[in-house]
Write the structure tokens for this entry.
Amino acid sequence: MTDSGWKPVLAGLAPEAWESEIDVYETQLVLKKRGKIDDRLFAETRLRRGAYGQRYDNGKRHDGVESRELIYPQKDLHKGPETLWDAPGMQRIKLPFGGVTAKQLGVLSELAEEYSDQILHVTTRQDIQLHFVHIEDTPDLMRRLAAVGVTTREACGNSVRNVTACPIAGVCRDEPFDVTPYARALAFFLLGHESGQDMGRKFKIAFSGCSQHACGLTGFHDIGCIARLRGEERGFEFYVGGGLGPVPHAAELLDPFVPETELFPLSEAVCRVFSRLGERANRSRARLKFLLKKLGIDEFRRLVLEERAKLKPDPRWTSFLSRLNEGAEAPRPRSVEQNGESEGPAEGFEEWRRTNVYEQRQPGYFAATIQLPLGDFTPDQARAIVDLMQRYTGDTLRTTVEQNLLLRWVTEEDLPRVHRELVAIGLAESGASGVSDVTSCPGTDTCKLGISSSRGLARELRRRLGAAQSELPAEARGLHIKCSGCFNSCGQHHVADIGFLGVSRNVNGRRVPHFQLVVGGRWQGNARTFGLAIGAIPSKNVPQVVDRLTAEFAKGHTEGESFEAWIARVGRKSVKALVQDLVDVPSFESDPDFYRDWGDPRIYTTGDQGVGECAGEVVSPIDFALAACERQIFEAQLLLDAQKPHDAAGRARAAMTDAAFWLARERSPELSQEQPEDILREFRVHLADTGAFDAASVGGRFAHYLFRAHEVDLSTVTSRAAHELIEEAQLFVDAAHQYHVRRSTLTAPEPAR
């Protein structure tokens, strides 16, 4: 890779057009400020430029980190936002395949220092995000990025998002060939391409060099490409229709071998079919995975091949193949100083080398992971890393889907030097990709959809597990833990060994932060196996849950048995029993800390109701009923484990129906639980069609899950379909909790004064 970065001359939107496009965006900002552009139109405009709104609270984040206090003297953020222009937001920056040069990282460090809260954040899609950026600063920020070959175009919005790839591609010992140039070329080919401008939702693409590891995570992408050889011919195992979100779908095989010459046109055809036939009215069902589920893989394949045949030949489909080696990485020539004597290894070097260093297929070279706590690093740390790159590596750095950085082309002799310099900047933590390297989405820190503090929880887990790492059994050190602040799965909790999904519960009239415990997912094998939630745990009890699960796994697994396999063998019932006593929440008076989220000193809810002074707490029948619905969902999981998908689906559907009955019964007291048709009708009339049910759920639309469940022929349900129905039932019952709490709050009498 050259110093200025790879020049994407094959792009659908060429670099020379970037400046004029930013000019257009800046004009749109002016028109919006004058009230000349519709709010919805401008929202999509800024999202396509990577500019997001974010949660805002007095100009600071609540994750317990003093360094996140804003240093932004030219803005008075403590007045509180009144308009789009007053409230800082988030700027997402695309890094195709996670690649970044020294010059680009230097510019990113300057932007973080000048325009944001002095933090660069690596996402689970290998992007960089800057938070607390004011929208009037975004055009200048974008121009400075464009000058070094980086764009924010289509980092968000209904578009082709950042194309991700295995961070060790090109140096991996198992890959048949390097997927980096293909990921890079496809990313710029689709940038601004007409086939991606009319999508109903976002579209994600990933590349992996092999199928056995997790580096590329192709198993849950809209398009997933795994490198394959047919003799000497290069090609890709081509998957479509994967996705996480509220209900995860594993990608399905479209073609076992797509020649490299067909990679671009086939990808374009998939995008065009999705644009034409994807859902538009209901955004919660507008991803490609739902279209694939509706059509089936055979019909979808037919439509894609039909679309491919219609495409007019484009020289860009194959012209990039003659330039695959352009910008190829190479080690930096060694200096005389580097060849001289050096100090001995710093403390902790051997453990860091064991857990953070990967031996490249190129003899004598290594890739070293820089573990970033929660994906964060500062401008000063970024500049120090630039210095490391310029002295020790081949101007090569990659971000990873586990929110870390990867230095490549480090010689064995330089490993102790690199480690010592990482120690000096506070980034030499060992245990990369292990149990203490917890992944998290922003959660309630900055995300408007966050329900529970996933960052705060992840920070606490990192602290505890990191301190106890040397005492942990070897079998538990390699587990993956991932936290999401809501059902959207940005923290990728579905594919973790132990995952957590943020929810809330109503306890004695007060809201309490909780996390659904998700087990049974699998990170390896490109993350094609998804876990299921087995119960909601109070946020403050989650660390104890992790302690028990890791200890029990270490004690009870057989040699070579994965955590996923152990869960399947011992059964979810046993796992739930192991943590059942941690479900209870003490009263507010006895332990108010349970009513605060991690890293936030405030009480979790600002709308606390008065608590009666009677001897016992009054619990409504609906609270009992919804708890019973959660029990039914868990029973459905046990039936699925017992290879009874028909019964499992029936139990999950019954859980949704019972929840709907108790909510609809408030409006229709004569409603009978024995008449499903009446329940559906009353729920539709009073809660679904009015929008009341979905409005109570933060960011979700789940009412339709109930009606679709009753359209399913239980006698034909497959295990996969039953798995999805259980996921949907859990989301529906969680939404029922939120609706009940909201309605109770609105109808509660004023407390006595």
Q: What stands out?
A: The chain has five domains: 15-146, 164-323, 345-424, 441-608, 618-748. Confidence is low (pLDDT under 50) at residues 1-12, 57-82, 606-618, 748-753. The two ends are 70 Å apart (CA to CA).
